[in-house]
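Running this now, will post back.
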Amino acid sequence: MLQFYNSLTRKKEDFIPIIEGKVSLYTCGPTVYDTAHIGNFRTFLFEDFLKRVLVARGFEVYHVMNITDVDDKTIKKSMTEGKPLSEITDYYTDLFKKDLSSLKIIQADVYPAATKHVDAMVKMIQKLIDKNHAYVTKDGSVFFSIKSYKNYGALMRINMDATRHSDRVSSDEYSLDNPQDFALWKAYKEEDGDVSWDSPWGKGRPGWHMECSAMSMAYLGDHFDIHCGGVDNKFPHHENEIAQSVCAVDTPFVNFWLHSEFLLVDGGKMSKSLGNFYCISDLIEKDFTAEEIRYILLNGHYRTKINFTLEKHHEAKVSIRRIQELQSRLKEMNSEICDGFPTEMEQFNIALENDLDSPNALAVFFEWIRNANSKLDKKAFTESDVSEGLNFIAYFDSIYGILPKAGFAPKDVIDLVGEREDARQNKDWEKSDKIRDQILEKGWIVKDKINGPKLTPK
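Update: finished.
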């Protein structure tokens, strides 16, 4: 039985989907005003890991990830750069999807953009007004009344009786210290430029929290299985989502709330001034592969902080190489094809089923690798052991996605191989040998075969 830690109840619970065999999953996507950094991708990779485990356990997953293409940040970026909002958000949306693809993150079934669903947001806001959970201000803004919802604060365990409550806040993000009525609809202001929509309350735009409620319900229904995000989304975003959604439809909203912890860099917060602020492209330029990034960011439990350092590159490279070397040894042996798995796979699955315990699952897998290599050295591996071992590696990689495709090598290594071939064609053996050494320094061995050069990990 899969168990997940539910942020709403603060305990591990057996996961039973609303519809047997099917999982409805919503994950908070990027706000597309800038390039997503590795802290963001810690969350996106956790969500990919969750999805892969669900699929491996036989569930059919329908996954929705929103694109926040209108909010305070995107509008500010548009005005600062003097460009239309869509030009800014389209550029960063494309960049985000390229990063997803480069990290082998399984695509969501749909990526709804907020600007395409404003009508649904307006209808939901009107429902809240009709039910006296929201009110219209003189300027035409609409705010949710947190006093109207008795369970407000359940996600963050806010004691509303002991907390000072002020009138309202129009900012998308604000402090937990002072819960306030929050904006569902923001009346048009001059600083919004040409970004606005018509509504029954006047020209304006939706609030950030309303966007996710309307889009998740549009694709997954009023009540669905899992909602994910980073811990920074808990308040005010997810707290407000719960309040407005439950009040709008009078049903439960989400059964399981899963949140990933922060990513530290060099033991602290990422900072451009400290030179430790990394996007995916920055790491690729530093010779990280997608698989190495995945390994580092999936190596810790999703509910614990993990510390990223450039020094972990070597550890990731060595760990991945251990798997590849065993896989190569097994493939070189003749084996009968079977559907079985080593007995260690049971413990591997038990770890994953225990709230996605990735560190323990990895420990089980690498202990199996150590034992498998020992048995191979002693020539104690049977043909069925070989087949079962290859099955286990394939199953492992379907969840972790850290094995490069056959023949894969970084672009700079492939370019060096091309340069070396040119040198060999010109009989410049000295240059050829120097390039071979450069390739070796990057962790690859090049061998000259009749049909051309062959690259293998060092």
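Residues 411-457 form one domain. More later if anyone needs it.
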